[in-house]
Amino acid sequence: MPSNDPPSSSSPSQPKLLDRVRAAVRLRHYSPRTEEAYVGWIRRFIRFHRLRHPGEMGAPEVGEFLTHLAVKGRVSASTQNQALNAVLFLYREVLERDIEGLEGIVRARRSVLVPVVLTRSEVAAVLRHLDGVAWLVAALLYGGGLRLSECLALRVKDVDFGARQLAIRGGKGRKDRVTTLAELVVSRLEAHLARVRAQHEADVARGEGRVVLPDAVARKYPRAAELWPWQFVFPASRICRDPRYGPPSRYHLHESVIQRAVTTAVRRAGITKRASCHTFRHSFATHLLEAGHDIRTVQALLGHADVSTTMVYTHVLNRGPLGVRSPADGL
Questions:
Q1: Which of 38, 139, 232, 271 can pair with 86 through a Cys bridge, CB separation 3.0 to 4.6 Å?
Q2: Quick check: helix, strand or coil at residue 251?
């Protein structure tokens, strides 16, 4: 089967260009999602320039590509920045070249967006239309302000029922943090983990009770992949046999399973807001601020590096500059 990767000018004894990109990304312990995005943008960059090798190009070609994204593609500022980061990574970390002179590119206009937030009654309505694992995941997203990827990456050892808290490992920016475990989910989560443990023990009995481990944990602790504390809280329904992950293992549940369930629940609840899994995180932050919690506390629970990121939730509160009473209400 022919490869989808663009041609590479490397010799037969050298890896292909995109394989070198993947290796450089993994060496720096970036997330699989970042690897996928970087490889995708670099592939688009090469194809935009009619399969020319990046080593033969420089700042003018990079600027042309980024300008095309803003003018013709009409992408968002964050999307253009991601493309720029991917191409710069290629040149700096793989080709070991600096790219200068990008000041003249057309930058996509950055939009100021107020996050979509559900009311408490709307959150409850969505949860009523979910069940099983989808209910548990959604309740954890709202109860602890988790991102969907963080929730699905939870391992058994990250759940502390006694302290009612969750440890988030390697979140966005590869930062760890601790957040709340809502009392609402405790009994259901305990019952769920009992079922998962039974499944894991059955896997072990068949010689397949392994889990995909992060970074070099498998080399440092050879038996960790079979131990109960390292198993995913929300394992996939099937054994993963991708050779990239070594022996047959269980990965965690795919994000699309929960995304589809939440989209359906929002529609059945009659909610017209453009709500998604991430909306639960927005709602968590906003409702904490409404309850009078300090913004620095909310910042820590969300894992934001800068409090200015957390400040966006003050714009959807029913108080402050945007919470003034309309003069029409006095007529």
A1: 38
A2: strand
